[in-house]
């Protein structure tokens, strides 16, 4: 299993641990993270959740092998797939979720940060949402939230061109709270998560709901429309070319597509 979980001092930690594949997320890993979030929510001793990765890598995003062989969506089970279950559990989690971005956060690695409450980024991290370059579209309300956070022009750089950005940029855009030296980011995020032990859980829960509430419906609506396009695009010849190019370690050739 490439997801490690542990609960210590009121904090449920979900650690992505598949360093040999740069923490690429498989179907089983999404399911494990969804289960861990549900368990954290149900456990009265848990006051906050900490999401983290490995030194130098938070996650390289969805496992591209899975995208090719077992793409989510496309059938009636699209919205029930493990990736949707994980993101839904994250979005609906009524306890604070703190992220320690230990390194590169690509694709859903950046998308998920938009749905965490507090985000701390290593000074070595790069964030990127290279969906279009993979023949795909933005996902999980990033097409709604990114323009709101950073403005339409900069969101187009990140979502159309797939330009990477730094932790300092993420702080400037309002995606992250602070940049920390790589060796300190997890401990810092953990100390922040532990602060919820000293706060009244009911008030935290209600305040989190208020912070997220006004957008909740628009977010779910956007996730549905993005999800339909994403599922269709996963099966497109453009995406196939991009995925094959990744594994053949070459640049994709989109010149034949109109
Ligand atoms: N899915 C499946 N396998 C992945 C992966 C992914 N998202 N990201 C990395 N891997 C695998 C590589 O295929 C490689 O496997 P191999 O050792 O069997 O050849 C291994 O992890 C190491 O990756 P590599 O690319 O050699 O490491 P790197 O340090 O040069 O680059 C990244 C790291 C994260 C920049 C690079 O792996 C990358 O760009 N990954 C894909 C990111 C992406 O497009 N994600 C999808 C977003 S929707």
Question: What attributes does this structure have?
Answer:
258 residues, alpha/beta, 2-enoyl-CoA Hydratase, Chain A, domain 1, six-stranded mixed β-sheet, four-stranded mixed β-sheet, 11 helices, binds coenzyme A
Which CATH architecture of the domain at 3-182 is right? Answer: Alpha-Beta Complex
Oligomer: single chain
- Low-confidence sequence ranges: none
By CATH reckoning, the class of the domain at 3-182 would read Alpha Beta
Main sheet makeup: 6 strands, mixed
> In angstroms, what is the radius of gyration?
18 Å
Number of DSSP helical runs: 11
Calculate the mean pLDDT score and round it: 96
Strand content: 15-25%
Strand order of the largest sheet: 1-2-3-5-7-10
What's the order of the H and E elements?
Answer: EEHEEHHEEHEEHHEHEHHHH
Q: Which helices and strands, and how do they pair?
A:
Elements: E1 3-8, E2 11-16, H1 27-42, E3 48-52, E4 56-59, H2 64-69, H3 82-92, E5 97-101, E6 103-106, H4 108-111, E7 118-122, E8 126-128, H5 142-150, H6 152-159, E9 165-166, H7 167-173, E10 178-180, H8 185-194, H9 201-212, H10 216-234, H11 237-247
This protein binds coenzyme A.
Structural write-up:
The structure is a single chain. The protein has a domain of 180 residues: 2-enoyl-CoA Hydratase, Chain A, domain 1 (Alpha-Beta Complex), CATH 3.90.226.10. It has eleven helices and ten strands. Strands 1-2-3-5-7-10 form a six-stranded mixed beta sheet, sandwiched between helices. Coenzyme A binds next to helix 2 and strand 6.
């Amino acid at each position: 299993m490439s997801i490690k979980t542990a609960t210590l001092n009121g904090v449920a930690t979900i650690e992505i641990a598949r360093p040999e594949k740069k923490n690429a997320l498989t179907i089983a890993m999404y399911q494990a993270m969804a289960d861990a979030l549900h368990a954290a929510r149900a456990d009265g001793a848990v006051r906050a959740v900490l999401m983290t990765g490995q030194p130098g890598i938070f996650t390289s995003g969805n496992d591209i092998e899975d995208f090719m062989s077992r793409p989510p969506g496309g059938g009636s089970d699209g919205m029930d797939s493990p990736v949707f279950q994980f993101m839904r559990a994250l979005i609906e989690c009524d306890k604070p979720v703190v992220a320690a971005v230990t390194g590169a956060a690509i694709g859903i690695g950046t998308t998920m940060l938009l749905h965490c409450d507090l985000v701390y980024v290593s000074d070595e991290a790069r964030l990127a949402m290279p969906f279009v370059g993979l023949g795909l579209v933005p996902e999980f309300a990033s097409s709604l939230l990114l323009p709101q956070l950073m403005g339409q022009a900069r969101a187009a750089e990140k979502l159309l061109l797939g330009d990477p950005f730094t932790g300092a940029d993420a702080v400037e855009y309002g995606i992250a709270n602070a940049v920390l030296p790589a060796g300190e980011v997890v401990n810092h995020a953990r100390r922040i998560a532990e602060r919820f032990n000293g706060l009244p859980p009911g008030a935290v829960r209600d305040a989190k709901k208020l912070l997220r509430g006004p957008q909740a419906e628009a977010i779910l609506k956007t996730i549905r429309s993005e999800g339909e396009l994403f599922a269709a695009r996963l099966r497109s010849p453009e995406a196939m070319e991009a995925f094959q190019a990744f594994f053949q370690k070459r640049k994709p050739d989109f010149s034949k597509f109109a």
